[in-house]
Specification:
With 348 residues, the protein is α+β, with helices and mostly antiparallel strands. 28% of the residues lie in helices and 22% in strands.
Length: 348
């Protein structure tokens, strides 16, 4: 376990999230890709917004005198975003205390079920069982709010020359069951490389089975199949990427948030048969096949609008300024239509 570090300096923040950690904020005020057509959606009306930015996102208008507490318990990747947004939020609302706890994905849904968390950051959607358990207790399902887009990127050591991979090849590389009915791939020669790469063994890096990225990859790539026992399990996305960077024959999967200069994210074949890199536009258009959302889940009774600090924190994240925090920290901001959809879900 390592601590979640949040350093505040007037208008800057550096947050590193790995393993399980906790942060209390209270008291004083803190200060080889394919070509993609870029589409800019037209601004849409939003009854909640006082003004609309050129890209169609509403600006955030702070309330006067807001105070209270927010407890956040959830997945580390999305908690990193929450921690960055919390710094900006408390600059506006110094009387709102925030306690932020980060860990494996499964800690959040249980905390929401037991009433220990006001917001639950998630790197995947809730499972049917998690929704069923919550509904059995409260009589209605939890509300899942998208706060950022994300790519589950496939990282290689930067000198690896493989131009792209298919989902079938990834299944052959990572799975011992090959449910996509492809061949087992254990060397880079079997993945199409030649010369000095042909006999080089493929070294696998990934997450613990309780991590959301592991679960998404297992369902979307392995079609529910079993990982190879040779998978080198790491404590977080940063460790996975660092491991891949140190081994020329390695491959690993993690959020594109963890990209660095010593690795490259390989393009993946999409439903159209073309290879797509995990760029922001490819993720928002879902051309990149391992696109996903980052969520915050809340306990919101039907036909009741959220109020207080939780509602304002989510409204801030779904504003122009909030999505600038998303983009500025390395995550992928939402498109205008998705922001409008999520703001409507909070209001209904």
């Amino acid at each position: 376990m390592t601590r979640l570090l949040l350093t505040v300096a007037v208008a800057s923040v550096c947050a590193v999230v790995m393993g399980c950690s906790a942060l209390r904020m209270s008291g004083a005020r803190g200060q080889g890709a394919d070509k993609v057509d870029t589409a800019h959606p037209a601004p849409e009306d939003d009854a909640d917004a006082t003004c609309v930015s050129p890209d169609g996102l509403p600006s955030y208008e702070p309330l006067a005198g807001l105070s209270g507490e927010i407890t956040s318990i959830g997945a580390s990747t999305t908690t990193n975003l929450v921690a960055r947004a919390a710094v900006r939020f408390r600059q506006m609302y110094p009387n709102v205390a925030m306690q932020i706890t980060s860990g494996l994905t499964n800690i959040g849904p249980l905390a929401l079920l037991e009433g220990r968390a006001d917001i639950v950051p998630m790197s995947r959607a809730l499972t049917p069982q998690e929704i069923q358990d919550f509904t059995a207790k409260y009589g209605y399902p939890p509300t899942e709010i998208k706060v950022a887009a994300d790519a589950l990127a496939i990282f290689l050591e930067k000198r690896n020359p493989v131009p792209g991979l298919t989902l079938e090849q990834l299944d052959g590389i990572f799975s011992r069951t090959q449910r996509r009915r492809g061949s087992s791939i254990e060397t880079w020669g079997q993945a199409g490389l030649t010369q000095e790469w042909a006999d080089r063994p493929i070294i696998l890096y990934g997450y613990n089975s309780e991590d959301g990225a592991h679960q998404v990859f297992q369902q979307e790539v392995l079609e529910g199949g079993a990982f190879r026992v040779s998978l080198r399990v790491q404590g977080g996305g940063s460790s996975i990427v660092q491991g891949v960077a140190a081994v020329p024959g390695a491959i690993g999967f993690a959020s594109i948030f963890f990209a660095c200069k010593r690795v490259r994210a390989v393009p993946i074949a999409g439903a159209d048969g073309s290879f797509h890199a995990p760029t922001a536009e490819n993720v928002r258009s879902h051309r990149y096949p391992l696109s996903r959302f980052l969520y915050i889940c809340v306990n919101k009774p039907p036909r009741q609008r959220l109020g207080g600090p939780v509602a304002e924190f989510l409204r801030f994240l779904l504003s122009r300024e909030g999505q600038q925090v998303v983009a500025g920290g390395g995550n992928i901001p939402l498109d205008t239509a998705t922001v409008k959809e999520c703001r409507h879900a909070l209001a209904k």
